[in-house]
Amino acid sequence: MMKNLTSLSTLLFLLLSCTGQEIPNKDYQLKTAVLAAPEHQREAATVMGYDSNGELTVIKEGTNDFVCIADDPNKEGFSVAAYHKSLEPFMTRGRELKAQGLSFKEVFDKREEEVNAGTLEMPDKATLYVSTGEPNEETGEIDNLYTRYVIYIPYATEESTGMPLSPPAPGAPWIMDPGTHRAHIMINPPKQ
């Protein structure tokens, strides 16, 4: 029996080593995924995390308008996101296209084509929050948490918003991808 457990442990270690991923437990994913959402939206948010196969799946059904995404164990660094549920078709389609091996530009172009054709729903305005930080293995907390804000306003331009195309000062808002389906106001607060 002990030999079988040792063999199983060795096999599990080898599998994790070969894939380079270790999937955090569900409680940790739930705790950290919501860090990107506004505090008053966290408890009732839907949370998507990673199952034992590394696949993104809903790990908690929410009751409000927020979707939170756990840190991807396949990517370097810590990053979680939260967004208004009206962005879910856009986000889901992006994940599908990336899974097909498309580059960032190819994903951008395909979604632009689909939004323009009316086959991909894009809200007229919605917010995405992205938080990064450093996991503290001793405390289980995320140190140096930093959140940036993305406010989608499809097809907006510098002229239609008065927003510059680059930040005029640290933390000042600016418009990115103007005139496209993915036009958005970026707000990157200064890091402390």
Task: Provide a descriptive summary of the structure in words.
By secondary structure, the protein is of the alpha+beta class. It has one domain (25-187). The protein contains 5 helices and 8 strands. It has helices at 2-19, 26-33, 88-99, 104-117, 158-161; strands at 46-50, 56-60, 66-69, 78-84, 126-135, 142-152, 174-176, 184-187. An 8-stranded mixed β-sheet has the order 2-1-3-4-5-6-8-7, with helices on one face. α3 (88-99) crosses α4 (104-117). The protein is globular, with a radius of gyration of 19 Å. It starts with a helix and ends in a 5-residue tail after the last strand. The relative contact order is 0.11. Mean pLDDT is 88; it is low at 1-20.
Annotation keywords:
about 25% strand, alpha+beta, eight-stranded mixed β-sheet, about 190 residues
The gross shape turns out to be globular
Radius of gyration: 19 Å
What is the residue-mean pLDDT, rounded to a whole number? 88
Order of strands, main sheet, comes to: 2-1-3-4-5-6-8-7
Report how far the terminal alpha carbons are from each other: 54 Å
Taking the sheet with the most strands, its summary is: 8 strands, mixed
Total of DSSP H or I helical runs spanning 4+ residues: 5
Task: Tell me the β content.
Answer: 25-35%
Order of helices and strands: HHEEEEHHEEHEE
Number of domains: 1
